[in-house]
Amino acid sequence: MSNHVSPTPPILLTIAGFDPCGGAGIAADLKTFAAHNCYGIAAVTALTVQSTQGVKSTHITPAATLRAQLDALAEDIAISTVKIGMLGNRANAAVVAEFLDHGKFAHVVLDPAVKASLGGADLLDAGGVKFLSEELLKRATLITPNIAEAELMTGLEIRDVAAMEAAARKLFEQGARAVVVKGGHMEKAIDVLFDGTELLALGGDRIKTENTHGSGCTFASAIAAQLASGRGLHEAVLLAKTYVTKAIERSFVIGKGAGPLDHFYRFHQEPAPRGTHEVPQHGLHPAAEPATHR
Amino acid sequence: MSNHVSPTPPILLTIAGFDPCGGAGIAADLKTFAAHNCYGIAAVTALTVQSTQGVKSTHITPAATLRAQLDALAEDIAISTVKIGMLGNRANAAVVAEFLDHGKFAHVVLDPAVKASLGGADLLDAGGVKFLSEELLKRATLITPNIAEAELMTGLEIRDVAAMEAAARKLFEQGARAVVVKGGHMEKAIDVLFDGTELLALGGDRIKTENTHGSGCTFASAIAAQLASGRGLHEAVLLAKTYVTKAIERSFVIGKGAGPLDHFYRFHQEPAPRGTHEVPQHGLHPAAEPATHR
After folding, report:
1. ipTM of model
2. Sign of CA dihedral B147, B153, B155, B156
3. Does B9 touch chain A (CB under 8 A)?
4. Which residues in chain A have Cβ-Cβ distances shorter than 8 Å to B288?
5. Which residue of B has its CA nearest to A253?
6. Spatial CB neighbours of B211, under 8 Å, sequence gap ≥ 6
7. Which of A47, B77, B133, B267 would you call most buried, defined as having the most Cβ atoms within 10 angstroms of its Cβ?
8. What pLDDT digit, counting tens, does each position of B148-188 carry?
9. What are the extents of the domains in chain A?
10. Global pTM?
11. Is the CB of A37 inside 8 Å of chain B's CB atoms?
12. CB-CB: which of A53, A59, A256 is closest to B65?
């Protein structure tokens, strides 16, 4: 039997925590990468004890083990793009900074997971938050905080889109090369994108569902996958917003709390794209059209 | 915007180690479940430091953390089927036995990961192997050792299909309700299935590739997914053999060693099935036709 090796897809590394219920963290990232015809690898920063009802406890990976995982991967595999999520503590954040300094990556998407959306468990210690804001931020090509994370990293209080925009500008001044402030938890689900030049408010209706477990991780991973597949920043963010919106619409009723998204909704409802490198260009969802806001 | 929740798919739990390069362990299991339109959740028994070139070290999850992960999942989510892979040590094997005793699962597929195929790193300590052979075995509805694992669990030396069949019978006598001895590492890639009544040798040509990283995990997970989707044992094993064969044929050249399978080859080459519960009924690969062997 002959061997029909598949063409090598873009390879993304996620550095994040593991969520046993598979909705968030590394499982969500790997599913999102696969749904975009990318190949995902992963370094585990923490094991969370978690269900759809929230994070009960976290078991942070020792820094030496995190470093060993990263070294083994980097020695072996040509990594295009890095996506960073939960780090656990300052020691692991420092390992990641060192890793980024010794590698060359097309894109580094930093999704600063600081607190669990559900239940509010700490995903990063205070020293880690400081290190993230002062050091990791500068090493990212894109940072994607939600409102609470943007507040923590800027000291601003964010109650409306104008304040989201101010936070995006401030994070840029603090060293981020591009910023998406995720407004998924706001009433209108508007996201703000700032690349140092243009400031865009991306509209979106809030979907009537509690099944949004892992939507923040998924959005950031989808942006990373689109960037790794060659899209420009604006297009990557818009396509990712469409993707996460549809994956939330098709979410599963699993567990007693916030259910997970259907990361593979495209495969479940329409013919799959042909070829491994092709990223589907579905028509932009009307809600995801950019609206220049100021 | 209305909410189009997806129908709840069969839910499978994998209890296994984490492989950072994504080819084996939990990542392979979750991808396999998703490729079969099932939803996967996971409890992490160990973090491995691993690349396509082999396992460098393993960091076993403390038993209390493994138990906490399992309890959080079982309290929250209706689990159909459990798939067990790398356990690390006896303490974790005992946690899993206790978990199985307190739950009701349609199927329990035990894939006894004892040694890494590449490099031979220990994935289970000696006490764990004994516990597996004497205790866990009895709690499984199906056990899927490869040749080396079947040798270790039976004390038999296995050099041919007849010896594989003898090992399958012996494992049944030791308490397994059904056995698949995986011959993927043999020259002809024949698998032996014994359910206590019928003994089948399932033929298959060995595919000319080194990219078989995680094929054992994937085969066992695919069987579990087919069982959870309602197939009988024989059909589940045949469909899983077809799946893993095609996923190996479409494997990726990633890393310097044994590359990973393309778990989503179906989505990459043909229209996806409609509906979440539907498991694709591709024509059986000729190599996967059953041949009654004695």
Report:
1. 0.88
2. negative
3. yes
4. none
5. B8
6. A5, B248, B251, B252, B253, B258, B259, B260, B261
7. A47
8. 999 999 999 999 999 999 999 999 999 999 999 998 766 67
9. 11-266+278-286
10. 0.89
11. yes
12. A59
